[in-house]
From TrEMBL:
Gene Ontology molecular-function annotations: DNA binding
Annotated PROSITE patterns: HTH_CROC1
Entries under InterPro entries matching the protein: Cro/C1-type_HTH, Lambda_DNA-bd_dom_sf
Superkingdom in the source lineage: Bacteria
Record-annotated HTH cro/C1-type domain positions: 17-70
Record protein name field: HTH cro/C1-type domain-containing protein
């Protein structure tokens, strides 16, 4: 998979860095010495080529400018892709299960089926138990819940 690159933003930032460098009466080589980066790395940044955030920050510091000031540019603030309704619902499901954990619901061991039924009753939505199961397993992996076996079923309880 090719790496994503927002060319418009990189070019805009590069031109802005170049303008600050010229205003400070510095050459590219001066910034290279000040940052420890190569001449080509600085040139690439100014031309809008790919750069890491660490390089960007260090160049800003060398110019005596806070990175947030350098970023004070009008951009259209919009994500590259929208969240699908399915992904959004799964995200909400994680939050809803986290709320159950915090409410003490898991003081008694609960099966995936128990949790699914509870969520369906509370939110009046149809939850797939496989989605609930994945989230419960993740909470067990991160030690938020304890998973124990009862036959072939997992039971989840609070730590």
């Amino acid at each position: 998979m090719a790496r994503y690159k927002n060319e418009t933003a990189l070019k805009t930032l590069g031109l802005r860095i170049k303008a600050y460098r010229i205003k400070a009466q510095l050459e590219i080589l001066d910034l290279a010495v000040m940052t420890g980066f190569s001449y080509n790395a600085i040139s690439d940044i100014e031309n809008g080529s790919e750069t890491s955030i660490s390089y960007f920050i260090e160049v800003c510091f060398a110019l005596g400018i806070h990175p947030k000031e350098m970023m004070d540019i009008e951009f259209e603030v919009k994500s590259k892709n929208s969240l699908t309704p399915d992904r959004m619902e799964k995200s909400r499901l994680t939050q809803r299960i986290r709320a159950l954990i915090q409410s003490g619901y898991f003081k008694d061991p609960r099966s995936t089926s128990d949790v699914t039924k509870n969520l369906t009753e509370i939110y009046k939505l149809d939850f797939e138990s496989k989605n609930v199961s994945v989230i419960l397993a993740r909470f067990a992996t991160t030690n938020t819940l304890i998973a124990t076996k009862k036959g072939i079923r997992n039971l989840y309880s609070a730590k």
